[in-house]
């Protein structure tokens, strides 16, 4: 796999990339300018009034992408840990309390390409640190319209930056022998733009288990990550542009004790043709491929945490995702817009596992499981300016899905019956269809105030991981379920936006009902041997992925921005808060979790940041964030405390081409609890970390 990843960048000069005009990069282009023309997904759009709750943030290249998104109200990963210490398979992303599952329930796009892992639906965050990303537009609320299935909680659109002629180097050294480095090279070649970017990060890491519970097996969780990306954009005619992209990444982490290593590789490529003709037919065509492979080991730690043994390993989990999309926008007049198109996505993957270890190197049994999924969809979306101050939007799509070639096979590896088959199951193919729709209204009461409302239907197909792959977290084991059905959401929201040029204020009330929500349901406690996972110790519990009746989520989101230039030039204040009241409705085997709160969903989250910056790069900022308490498990028997953290940054431009900076994460070293096991062992996330760095522009 590593050899394949290293050869892909050599093809980049002739391989395809996604790009977008720089006018989509900033938040200000997308907010409150209803008469402007902007580039959206590569095509010209005349409507910027949004009927959904949305927010566009400028991505800070000085911090990890997942941490740049933290201030968005209601946006969270399954666990609080970032990609330096979390297990890669726990890093799904969601919004509005529709969590309780490590697979993403928000649709993440990079220049129009879906980014969820083709096997498990989580996000490989280290793969984006090499990319020059200008902005992230977060649209809260389900229903994906033109973007396909997966947007149960919302859509996050990452937009690549237009770097021009530029060479930039950055390097930083931090606590625990941590190193971050990046390179950005941009060159205008003929009428095209070439961008090459790279990143590298490593650290000795921190010990995840809290100090009072550590034993001799506990140690720092080291990490090492790297990425390389190449994109080239060039016009092929006056109105048509070719956009190409290739990126590769590698990610090594440990979980803080022996036999807890995990490794994740990835490679993506995409190609798109975009035809932009003002006042005439527009069209775009996109094709992409994702390649992933990961391996992970699990260790069983003794109750006194003074010994550990390997209990399970997934030594090879390859997967691939393929997709395509075509869209046309016919001319329908100055006061309307129409989008018609279709898309296709195919995923396939296999997990190869060893378990029942007699010693740390000798497994007794092996398992191989996997399958593939496909979706085909067609959509139509429209918007119309019914009056100078009234915009209506609406759309629908039909999707056809299939789950095919599912299997699970287990064999004995050692005497007395080496090679004998313990399980050989093939699962019947299944298929179905889903109809979804959404609609919205935006009314400009005056030049400052916009009232908006929206209603939507959305859906998500279970991942190969959920259908066929079991997993372990500490002593707890969770079995797969090949009979899972798609998740479906229905919801509505009402909101108000105020924008007078210096002050922006948005408030949104929302309600969602996620039917057939996939959750990890507790069925029994160890010790014992359970189907699909094997032995579970007396310190662990046995769970299985199941469809719950529903998860209901309702709440409020507030986000504000104040331009304080009247007090101090270039000074701004941003703040956000979200409240989520979420509840599970369950029956049958899952009846024990009925009326309980979904795992990992806090009631309250809030953040605020004060930023001052100059054009030469000199800047100062301080950010505070509060995340409320939450339950670790579906039965609400274990809770994680709330946490208040403070981050800061100072940067000084020594010259026009040299910037020096200092940063701190979690200034007061707050204990941010990320997980708690059934035996009460607490794992923490990102402790206090200091950084000092340089950034240089060579030209």
Automatic annotation (TrEMBL):
Superkingdom of the source species: Bacteria
GO cellular component, one term: cell outer membrane
Organism: Parasphingorhabdus marina DSM 22363
Keywords (A to Z) from UniProt: Cell outer membrane, Membrane, Receptor, Signal, TonB box, Transmembrane, Transmembrane beta strand, Transport
A GO molecular function held by the record: siderophore uptake transmembrane transporter activity
Signal peptide limits: 1-19
Family label: Belongs to the TonB-dependent receptor family.
Domain annotation TonB-dependent receptor-like beta-barrel: ranges: 230-667
GO biological process, one term: siderophore transmembrane transport
Residue ranges of domain TonB-dependent receptor plug in the record: 47-155
Pfam families: Plug (PF07715), TonB_dep_Rec_b-barrel (PF00593)
Location of the protein in the cell: Cell outer membrane
Keyword Methyltransferase: no
Entry-linked PANTHER family: HEMOGLOBIN AND HEMOGLOBIN-HAPTOGLOBIN-BINDING PROTEIN 1-RELATED (PTHR30069:SF29), TONB-DEPENDENT OUTER MEMBRANE RECEPTOR (PTHR30069)
Name of the molecule in the record: Outer membrane receptor proteins, mostly Fe transport
Membrane topology: Multi-pass membrane protein
């Amino acid at each position: 796999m590593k050899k394949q990843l290293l050869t892909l960048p050599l093809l980049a000069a002739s391989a395809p990339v996604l790009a977008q005009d720089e006018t989509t990069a900033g938040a200000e282009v997308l907010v409150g300018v209803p008469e402007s023309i902007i580039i959206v997904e590569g095509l010209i759009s005349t409507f910027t009034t949004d009927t959904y709750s949305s927010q566009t943030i400028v991505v800070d290249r000085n911090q990890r992408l997942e941490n740049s998104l933290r201030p968005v109200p209601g946006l969270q990963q399954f666990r609080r840990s970032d990609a330096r210490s979390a297990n890669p398979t726990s890093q799904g992303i969601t919004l509005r309390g529709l969590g309780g599952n490590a697979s993403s329930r928000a649709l993440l796009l990079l220049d129009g390409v879906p980014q969820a892992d083709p096997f498990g639906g989580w996000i490989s965050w280290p793969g984006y640190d090499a990319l020059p990303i200008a902005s992230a537009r977060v649209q809260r609320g389900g229903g994906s319209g033109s973007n396909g299935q997966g947007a149960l909680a919302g859509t996050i659109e990452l937009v690549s930056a237009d770097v021009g002629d530029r060479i930039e180097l950055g390097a930083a050294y931090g606590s625990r022998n941590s190193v971050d480095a990046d390179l950005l090279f941009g060159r205008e070649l003929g009428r095209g733009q070439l961008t090459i970017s790279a990143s590298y990060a490593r650290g000795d890491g921190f010990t995840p288990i809290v100090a009072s519970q550590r034993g001799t097996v506990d140690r720092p969780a080291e990490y090492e990550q790297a990425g390389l990306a190449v994109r080239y954009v060039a016009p092929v005619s006056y109105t048509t542009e070719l956009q190409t992209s290739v990126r590769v990444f590698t990610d090594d982490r440990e979980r803080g004790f022996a036999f807890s290593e995990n490794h994740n590789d990835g490679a993506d490529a995409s190609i798109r043709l975009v035809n932009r003709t003002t006042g005439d037919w527009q069209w775009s065509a996109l094709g992409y491929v994702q390649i992933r492979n990961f391996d992970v080991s699990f260790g069983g730690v003794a109750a006194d945490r003074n010994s550990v043994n390997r209990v399970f390993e997934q030594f090879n989990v390859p997967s691939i995702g393929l997709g395509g999309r075509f869209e046309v926008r016919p001319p329908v007049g100055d006061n309307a817009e129409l989008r018609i198109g279709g898309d296709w996505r195919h995923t396939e993957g296999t997990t190869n596992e060893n378990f029942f270890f007699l010693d740390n190197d000798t497994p007794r049994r092996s398992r191989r499981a996997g399958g593939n999924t496909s979706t085909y969809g067609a959509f139509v979306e429209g918007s119309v300016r019914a009056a100078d101050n009234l915009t209506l939007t609406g759309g629908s799509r039909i999707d056809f899905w299939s789950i095919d070639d599912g299997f699970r096979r287990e064999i004995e590896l050692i005497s007395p019956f080496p090679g004998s088959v313990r399980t050989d199951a093939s699962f019947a193919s299944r298929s179905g269809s889903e109809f979804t729709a959404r609609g919205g209204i935006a009314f400009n009461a005056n030049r400052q105030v916009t009232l908006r409302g929206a209603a939507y239907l959305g859906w998500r197909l279970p991942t190969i991981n959920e259908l066929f792959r079991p997993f372990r977290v500490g002593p707890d084991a969770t079995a797969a379920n090949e009979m899972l059905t798609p998740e479906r959401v229905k919801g509505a929201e009402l909101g108000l936006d105020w924008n007078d040029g210096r002050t922006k204020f948005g408030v949104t009330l929302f309600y969602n009902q996620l039917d057939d929500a996939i959750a990890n349901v507790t069925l029994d406690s160890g010790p014992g041997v359970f189907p699909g996972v094997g032995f579970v110790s007396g310190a662990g519990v046995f769970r299985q992925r199941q469809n719950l009746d529903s998860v209901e989520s309702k709440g409020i989101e507030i986000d504000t921005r104040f331009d304080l230039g009247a007090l101090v030039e270039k000074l701004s204040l941003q703040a956000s808060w979200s409240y989520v009241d979420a509840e599970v409705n369950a029956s049958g085997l899952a009846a024990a979790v009925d009326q309980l709160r979904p795992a990992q969903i806090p009631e309250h989250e809030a953040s605020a940041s004060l930023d001052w910056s100059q054009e030469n790069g000199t800047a100062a900022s301080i950010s505070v964030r509060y995340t409320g308490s939450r339950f670790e498990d579906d039965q609400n028997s274990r809770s994680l405390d709330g946490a208040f953290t403070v981050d800061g940054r100072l940067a000084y431009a020594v010259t026009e081409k040299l910037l020096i900076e200092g940063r701190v994460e979690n200034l007061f070293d707050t204990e941010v609890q990320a997980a708690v096991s059934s035996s009460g062992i607490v794992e923490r996330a990102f402790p206090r970390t200091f950084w000092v760095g340089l950034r240089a522009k060579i030209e």
